Amino acid sequence: MTTIAIIGGSGLHEMPQLSDKKEVFSETPWGMPSAPLEVGFIGKTKVVFLSRHGMSVRYPPHMINYRANLWAINQLSPDFVVGFGSVGCISPEDKPGMLAIPDQLIDYTWGRESSYNCGDSETIVHIDFTNPFDEKVRELLLDASGALSYPIIDGGVYGVTQGPRLETASEVDRMARDGVHYIGMTLMPEACLARELNLPYAMICQIVNHAAGRQTSEECIDFTNLSEILERTTKQSLEIVLKASEDLNIDELK
Ligand code: HPA
Asked: Cα(251) to centroid of ligand 1, in Å?
Protein backbone atom coordinates (compact mmCIF):
# COMPACT_ATOMS: atom_id res chain seq x y z
CA MET A 1 0.00 0.00 0.00
CA THR A 2 1.19 3.48 -0.83
CA THR A 3 1.47 5.92 2.06
CA ILE A 4 1.99 9.57 1.31
CA ALA A 5 2.43 12.48 3.68
CA ILE A 6 1.18 15.98 2.97
CA ILE A 7 2.29 19.02 4.94
CA GLY A 8 -0.40 21.62 4.42
CA GLY A 9 0.54 25.29 4.11
CA SER A 10 -1.45 28.50 4.55
CA GLY A 11 -4.26 27.28 2.28
CA LEU A 12 -4.66 23.77 3.69
CA HIS A 13 -5.27 23.20 7.39
CA GLU A 14 -7.36 20.03 7.31
CA MET A 15 -8.34 17.17 5.02
CA PRO A 16 -12.04 16.42 5.28
CA GLN A 17 -11.69 14.16 2.18
CA LEU A 18 -10.00 11.41 4.23
CA SER A 19 -12.07 8.31 4.97
CA ASP A 20 -11.61 6.18 8.12
CA LYS A 21 -9.84 9.17 9.58
CA LYS A 22 -7.91 8.89 12.84
CA GLU A 23 -6.07 11.61 14.69
CA VAL A 24 -2.63 10.63 15.86
CA PHE A 25 -1.22 12.73 18.70
CA SER A 26 2.52 12.27 18.76
CA GLU A 27 4.92 13.64 21.34
CA THR A 28 8.42 13.50 19.86
CA PRO A 29 11.90 13.90 21.42
CA TRP A 30 11.75 17.41 19.90
CA GLY A 31 8.39 18.38 21.38
CA MET A 32 4.91 18.45 19.90
CA PRO A 33 4.21 18.83 16.16
CA SER A 34 2.11 21.79 15.00
CA ALA A 35 -1.08 19.68 15.18
CA PRO A 36 -2.23 16.09 15.57
CA LEU A 37 -1.56 14.07 12.42
CA GLU A 38 -4.66 13.11 10.46
CA VAL A 39 -4.34 9.62 9.02
CA GLY A 40 -6.89 8.15 6.63
CA PHE A 41 -7.51 7.03 3.07
CA ILE A 42 -8.24 8.55 -0.27
CA GLY A 43 -9.13 5.59 -2.47
CA LYS A 44 -6.43 3.02 -1.87
CA THR A 45 -3.83 5.58 -0.84
CA LYS A 46 -3.04 6.01 2.83
CA VAL A 47 -2.59 9.70 3.56
CA VAL A 48 -0.84 11.25 6.53
CA PHE A 49 -1.76 14.91 6.81
CA LEU A 50 -0.19 17.58 9.00
CA SER A 51 -1.15 21.23 9.09
CA ARG A 52 2.20 23.02 9.23
CA HIS A 53 0.77 26.13 10.84
CA GLY A 54 -1.41 24.18 13.32
CA MET A 55 -5.15 23.82 13.76
CA SER A 56 -6.53 25.88 16.63
CA VAL A 57 -3.30 27.85 17.14
CA ARG A 58 -1.68 29.28 14.02
CA TYR A 59 2.13 29.21 14.26
CA PRO A 60 3.94 31.80 12.14
CA PRO A 61 6.74 30.41 9.93
CA HIS A 62 9.58 31.20 12.38
CA MET A 63 7.74 29.58 15.34
CA ILE A 64 6.92 26.21 13.74
CA ASN A 65 8.47 23.14 15.37
CA TYR A 66 9.79 21.71 12.10
CA ARG A 67 11.83 19.03 13.88
CA ALA A 68 8.80 17.63 15.69
CA ASN A 69 6.70 17.83 12.52
CA LEU A 70 9.08 15.78 10.37
CA TRP A 71 9.86 13.36 13.21
CA ALA A 72 6.17 12.65 13.80
CA ILE A 73 5.59 12.10 10.06
CA ASN A 74 8.58 9.79 9.80
CA GLN A 75 7.13 7.57 12.56
CA LEU A 76 4.36 6.65 10.08
CA SER A 77 6.88 5.65 7.34
CA PRO A 78 5.42 7.45 4.31
CA ASP A 79 6.77 6.60 0.84
CA PHE A 80 7.20 10.29 0.17
CA VAL A 81 6.37 13.70 1.60
CA VAL A 82 5.00 16.72 -0.26
CA GLY A 83 5.04 20.14 1.34
CA PHE A 84 2.53 22.76 0.19
CA GLY A 85 3.71 26.36 0.23
CA SER A 86 2.31 29.63 -1.02
CA VAL A 87 4.89 31.91 -2.58
CA GLY A 88 5.41 35.25 -4.26
CA CYS A 89 7.04 35.19 -7.71
CA ILE A 90 9.85 37.44 -8.88
CA SER A 91 10.03 37.17 -12.67
CA PRO A 92 7.38 38.84 -14.83
CA GLU A 93 6.76 35.64 -16.85
CA ASP A 94 5.49 33.90 -13.72
CA LYS A 95 2.01 34.86 -12.58
CA PRO A 96 -0.22 34.45 -9.54
CA GLY A 97 -2.45 31.42 -10.13
CA MET A 98 0.38 29.26 -11.45
CA LEU A 99 1.91 26.31 -9.64
CA ALA A 100 5.62 25.50 -9.43
CA ILE A 101 7.77 22.57 -8.38
CA PRO A 102 11.12 24.14 -7.49
CA ASP A 103 14.36 22.23 -7.93
CA GLN A 104 16.66 24.42 -5.85
CA LEU A 105 16.56 26.63 -2.79
CA ILE A 106 18.47 29.39 -1.02
CA ASP A 107 18.00 29.62 2.72
CA TYR A 108 17.82 33.18 4.12
CA THR A 109 16.33 32.11 7.47
CA TRP A 110 18.14 32.36 10.78
CA GLY A 111 17.80 30.97 14.29
CA ARG A 112 15.59 28.02 13.35
CA GLU A 113 16.35 24.57 14.82
CA SER A 114 17.46 22.95 11.59
CA SER A 115 19.06 19.59 12.43
CA TYR A 116 18.59 16.44 14.48
CA ASN A 117 22.37 16.45 14.83
CA CYS A 118 22.89 18.23 18.14
CA GLY A 119 26.39 17.23 19.23
CA ASP A 120 25.17 14.39 21.41
CA SER A 121 26.34 11.45 19.30
CA GLU A 122 29.79 10.11 18.40
CA THR A 123 29.56 10.99 14.73
CA ILE A 124 28.82 14.22 12.92
CA VAL A 125 26.51 13.71 9.96
CA HIS A 126 26.85 16.06 6.99
CA ILE A 127 23.96 15.24 4.68
CA ASP A 128 24.43 15.84 0.96
CA PHE A 129 22.09 18.67 -0.06
CA THR A 130 23.38 19.46 -3.56
CA ASN A 131 19.90 18.77 -4.88
CA PRO A 132 17.56 19.57 -2.01
CA PHE A 133 14.47 17.90 -3.51
CA ASP A 134 13.85 14.29 -4.38
CA GLU A 135 13.95 14.20 -8.18
CA LYS A 136 11.65 11.19 -8.46
CA VAL A 137 8.97 12.84 -6.37
CA ARG A 138 9.30 16.01 -8.45
CA GLU A 139 8.83 13.95 -11.61
CA LEU A 140 5.81 12.17 -10.18
CA LEU A 141 4.19 15.52 -9.41
CA LEU A 142 5.05 16.96 -12.82
CA ASP A 143 3.65 13.90 -14.64
CA ALA A 144 0.48 14.04 -12.57
CA SER A 145 -0.02 17.74 -13.26
CA GLY A 146 0.52 17.11 -16.98
CA ALA A 147 -2.15 14.40 -16.90
CA LEU A 148 -4.55 16.85 -15.22
CA SER A 149 -3.54 19.70 -17.58
CA TYR A 150 -2.74 22.13 -14.77
CA PRO A 151 -0.21 24.85 -15.63
CA ILE A 152 2.89 24.09 -13.65
CA ILE A 153 6.45 25.40 -13.79
CA ASP A 154 9.15 22.74 -13.69
CA GLY A 155 12.04 23.93 -11.53
CA GLY A 156 13.21 27.24 -10.17
CA VAL A 157 14.86 28.48 -7.03
CA TYR A 158 12.80 28.95 -3.86
CA GLY A 159 14.27 31.63 -1.56
CA VAL A 160 13.25 30.99 2.04
CA THR A 161 12.83 34.16 4.08
CA GLN A 162 12.47 34.42 7.84
CA GLY A 163 9.12 36.19 7.95
CA PRO A 164 6.63 36.72 9.26
CA ARG A 165 6.91 40.13 7.62
CA LEU A 166 7.07 40.30 3.85
CA GLU A 167 10.19 41.50 2.02
CA THR A 168 11.27 44.99 1.06
CA ALA A 169 11.54 45.80 -2.65
CA SER A 170 15.34 45.96 -2.29
CA GLU A 171 15.46 42.56 -0.63
CA VAL A 172 13.52 41.17 -3.59
CA ASP A 173 15.98 42.85 -5.99
CA ARG A 174 18.84 41.21 -4.13
CA MET A 175 17.13 37.82 -4.24
CA ALA A 176 16.57 38.27 -8.01
CA ARG A 177 20.33 38.89 -8.37
CA ASP A 178 20.92 35.69 -6.38
CA GLY A 179 18.84 33.78 -8.91
CA VAL A 180 15.71 33.28 -6.78
CA HIS A 181 12.38 32.75 -8.59
CA TYR A 182 9.87 32.16 -5.77
CA ILE A 183 9.79 33.56 -2.24
CA GLY A 184 8.21 31.82 0.71
CA MET A 185 8.89 31.37 4.42
CA THR A 186 8.50 27.69 5.25
CA LEU A 187 10.59 25.42 3.04
CA MET A 188 13.53 25.47 5.43
CA PRO A 189 14.40 23.68 7.62
CA GLU A 190 11.60 21.34 6.50
CA ALA A 191 13.50 20.13 3.40
CA CYS A 192 16.81 19.44 5.14
CA LEU A 193 15.17 17.68 8.10
CA ALA A 194 13.37 15.40 5.63
CA ARG A 195 16.76 14.67 4.03
CA GLU A 196 18.30 13.88 7.44
CA LEU A 197 15.50 11.37 7.98
CA ASN A 198 15.92 9.95 4.46
CA LEU A 199 12.37 10.90 3.54
CA PRO A 200 11.87 11.63 -0.19
CA TYR A 201 10.58 15.22 -0.17
CA ALA A 202 9.40 17.78 -2.72
CA MET A 203 7.41 20.99 -2.52
CA ILE A 204 4.49 22.16 -4.62
CA CYS A 205 4.22 25.94 -4.61
CA GLN A 206 1.08 27.97 -5.09
CA ILE A 207 2.06 31.32 -6.60
CA VAL A 208 -0.31 33.81 -4.98
CA ASN A 209 1.29 37.22 -5.55
CA HIS A 210 4.03 39.11 -7.34
CA ALA A 211 6.92 39.68 -4.91
CA ALA A 212 7.27 43.05 -3.18
CA GLY A 213 8.05 45.91 -5.57
CA ARG A 214 7.19 43.92 -8.70
CA GLN A 215 4.24 44.17 -11.12
CA THR A 216 0.93 44.44 -9.21
CA SER A 217 2.88 44.50 -5.93
CA GLU A 218 4.84 47.60 -6.95
CA GLU A 219 3.39 49.69 -4.10
CA CYS A 220 2.37 46.98 -1.62
CA ILE A 221 1.26 43.38 -1.30
CA ASP A 222 -2.40 43.14 -0.49
CA PHE A 223 -2.55 39.80 1.31
CA THR A 224 -6.25 40.20 2.14
CA ASN A 225 -7.18 39.68 -1.52
CA LEU A 226 -5.27 36.47 -2.04
CA SER A 227 -7.66 33.92 -0.53
CA GLU A 228 -9.50 33.05 -3.76
CA ILE A 229 -6.27 32.35 -5.64
CA LEU A 230 -4.83 30.41 -2.69
CA GLU A 231 -7.94 28.28 -2.45
CA ARG A 232 -7.96 27.46 -6.18
CA THR A 233 -4.24 26.66 -6.44
CA THR A 234 -4.31 24.60 -3.24
CA LYS A 235 -7.20 22.51 -4.58
CA GLN A 236 -5.29 21.90 -7.82
CA SER A 237 -2.14 21.00 -5.85
CA LEU A 238 -4.04 18.46 -3.79
CA GLU A 239 -5.48 16.83 -6.92
CA ILE A 240 -1.96 16.61 -8.35
CA VAL A 241 -0.52 14.97 -5.23
CA LEU A 242 -3.35 12.44 -5.07
CA LYS A 243 -2.97 11.62 -8.77
CA ALA A 244 0.78 11.22 -8.26
CA SER A 245 0.20 8.78 -5.43
CA GLU A 246 -2.21 6.74 -7.59
CA ASP A 247 0.50 6.50 -10.25
CA LEU A 248 3.21 5.58 -7.82
CA ASN A 249 5.41 2.61 -8.48
CA ILE A 250 7.05 2.38 -5.07
CA ASP A 251 10.04 0.42 -6.39
CA GLU A 252 10.93 3.33 -8.68
CA LEU A 253 11.30 5.60 -5.67
CA LYS A 254 13.98 3.48 -3.98
N1 HPA B 1 7.03 36.53 0.30
C2 HPA B 1 7.20 35.60 1.27
N3 HPA B 1 6.33 34.65 1.53
C4 HPA B 1 5.22 34.59 0.77
C5 HPA B 1 4.96 35.53 -0.24
C6 HPA B 1 5.92 36.54 -0.49
O7 HPA B 1 5.76 37.39 -1.38
N8 HPA B 1 3.77 35.19 -0.79
C9 HPA B 1 3.32 34.09 -0.12
N10 HPA B 1 4.19 33.73 0.83
From this structure: 36
